[in-house]
Amino acid sequence: MTTAGGGWTLVASVHENNMYGKCTVGDRWSSQQGDSSDRPEGDGIWSNRVTFGSAEAATSDDYKNPGYYDITAQDVSVWHVPNNAQTEEWARASILRYHTETSFLTSQGGNLYHLFTRYPVTYGTGVCNTNTGPAVPIVYDAGNEESTLQLYGPNTRDQVTPGFITFRVFNNEKAAMAICSGVKPFGCHTEH
């Protein structure tokens, strides 16, 4: 990837196989066991060293490689690519692409694994707008603040500020969301 001078490595992808079936079989990043206070950490994928999937299939299945926890990084780049897009088409097909330029990972342990070890995605361990992880400004490579807002439902648009990536936020029910992609929430209904 050549964004911001290159040096980017694909270490993970989050694929939603069923928008109505969150926390069901196939949702490795949230939980394949269901969303329940009986399993507050879900499957723990954000802060463990389990790997799965392949880069070639990253738009049709979840993916996590050892670089997620082994590579030391400064910033992140996020691409929103439609399901089943071929690897060589990702840049052209993406509906939103952005990256950070603040070197924020340096102060968070050097990668997403360490960030989510510091800010675990665990039900009931925080409250809305209080125990949030970092909210980092983004630089758009494709898309803009307005197109980012259009990716969210009308009720959510009034509760977020576009132009950020925010890590580990809680809703009113104390459920943890790992990432608010492209936005910084100030409302407490991040699940919408």
* Number of discrete helical segments: 5
Low-confidence stretches: none
Cα shape? globular
Helix content bin: 10-25%
Q: On the 0-100 scale, what is the average pLDDT? A: 83
Spell out the blueprint of helices and strands:
Blueprint: E1 12-13, E2 63-64, H1 67-70, E3 77-80, H2 90-93, E4 96-99, H3 112-118, E5 135-137, E6 139-142, H4 145-150, H5 154-157, E7 160-162, E8 164-170, E9 176-180, E10 183-185
Antiparallel strand pairs: 1-2, 3-4, 4-6, 5-8, 7-10, 8-9
GO molecular function, one term: oligosaccharide binding
Region (Disordered): 26-47
Keywords: Disulfide bond
Account of the protein in words:
The chain has 192 residues and is of the alpha+beta class. It has one domain. Helix content is 13%, strand content 19%. The protein has 5 helices and 10 strands; from the N terminus they run ββαβαβαββααββββ. It has a 3-stranded antiparallel beta sheet. A 3-stranded antiparallel beta sheet has the order 5-8-9, with no helix packed on it. The two termini are 31 Å apart. The relative contact order is 0.15. GO terms for molecular function: oligosaccharide binding. This is Intelectin. One of its GO terms (cellular component) is extracellular space.
Short description:
By secondary structure, the protein is of the alpha+beta class. It is built from five helices and ten strands.
Q: Could you name the key traits of this structure?
A:
192 residues; alpha+beta; three-stranded antiparallel β-sheet; Fibrinogen-like_C; oligosaccharide binding
